[in-house]
Design goal:
By secondary structure, the protein is an all-alpha fold. It contains 3 helices and no strands.
Amino acid sequence: MPTPESMVSKAESDKETRETEKKSWSQEKVIEYSEIRSKKEAMLDAVNENFRDDPEREEDLKEMINDWADLKIKLFTDRRSWVRNPDKETE
């Protein structure tokens, strides 16, 4: 059986964690799915145009842009998933 002190300590720790997470979310720049796709295409076009003579760098940049877009889309989807699936437990 947990002691009152340990319960208070856990509650304070949980509160700090939530506040840190809330601050992190509030500082994040949120863009819509269509904006992500549009920005990704613009960046890929710029890479194609400016790095034709350096195929290795061109491929590296394209990979980074695709990874960035995938992460932004995942964040966008995860942020809204609790609305669609309120009973789904987080991992």
